[in-house]
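As the next step, I selected for study a record pairing a protein sequence with its backbone structure tokens, which the following lines show:
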Amino acid sequence: MSTAVVVGSGPNGLAAAITLAAEGVDVTVLEAADTLGGGTRSSELTLPGLIHDECSAAHPLAVDTAFSRRFDLGAHGLTWRWPEVQYTHPLDDGAGAAAYRSVEETAAGLGRDGRRWQAVFGPLAARFDDITADFLRPMLHVPEHPIALTRFGALSALPAALLTRLFAGEEARALFAGVAAHAFRPFSAPMSSAIGVALGTAAHRYGWPVAEGGSAAISRAMISLAEASGVRFETGVEVRSLAQLGKQDVVMLDVAPAAAVRIAGGEMPGRIARALSRYRHGPGTFKVDFAIEGGVPWTHEPSRRAGTVHVGGSAREIAAAERAVARGRMPERPFVLVCQQYLADPSRSRGDVHPLYAYAHVPAGHAGDVSEAIERQIERFAPGFRERILARHVRSVPGMEAHNANYVGGDVVTGANSARQLVFRPRAALDPYATGIPGVYLCSAATPPGAGAHGMCGYNAAGSALRAVRPSASVTHEALA
């Protein structure tokens, strides 16, 4: 029997372990932390009984993938819950915009920009299953659906500033700017629309669901499935070198690229080690979790029903804040992402006391306290918010990296979404998961398709490993799907 060790138990490490075990590989997962799950952990951060997500919150790209279609996590306890409104963008004086599952309902709320919103997102949503079949894989492959992918790619290639200007009114501009800001990129940069186009389309096709009971329910279901397949887990084990792992047929590294180079030591070919060492990380996040009584009193009424609220003001304000962060300057009014998961999943609350998730985009490695700026931004669009706060839990940028070593400098998406790294991550290669060391593969969110609890980085990397270990088995992406 072939053997494998997976280093790291985030959703990608777990997906890799499950995929290998399903093919008869004997798998052990090693985790440096005391708890499994990586970015899909949840806990009572503020008050007893309130369930807070520690990193990932909403999961628009995890609902329907090659991994989720092959492995039934629902049978192991995972249940998705959807908010009434997928995401919103409040503006001053109670104005704002809202994104619903329906493209038509969203367009109806955007006035004169409704037809343009439909023209952008309607065709993409209708073909998004085909599009994701291509973009949730490495970019260097023959596309299965070239026409759909070409339309998606043409919009994704635009700078967010240009795509934002397709809309005439501030509501539609802000609605797109908020989702585009998930890229952690200046809006003037090429391909800075890509993440916004993907997540905006996903909202209409799949919604932005949350996992019932917290994001930890995702990792619990994956662990349950893995254990049923014979996978073993060890926590509190920090892997410093490949020699520590003994002789294995496959090693999967759910770690950042620089950490992979360190673990490999001198075994990795120099050109690959240099390429991975040059991998760029993006800006950081500063996170505050609140226990609030009665919900957030947003003046924009749809925001009171939204799973995610993008807080930052006008599209111009958000662009300025993202530009400052990219240049290493802390903006006075940062972009803040607020998640109200309890609206879709009331099990996270206790009575009328609710968990609220908020983080601000900040410069990489920022050492300052941003909690006051976060509260001020929320209070701006929800007067009286501060009066409802019962408790807080703060995780600074250094604290974020200490919590998860993959979040270098507080970078929770494990890599800058530059045009080059969106296309060639973590390096330009036909097999981006290979490290140049036989049997050793990188499977973290630094590999295609990037950040998210979809597990597709680990699933794809495991497919690469299986094709190398068992060439006679003819394991292909289509077979794994």
About this structure: The chain is about 35% helix and 15% strand.
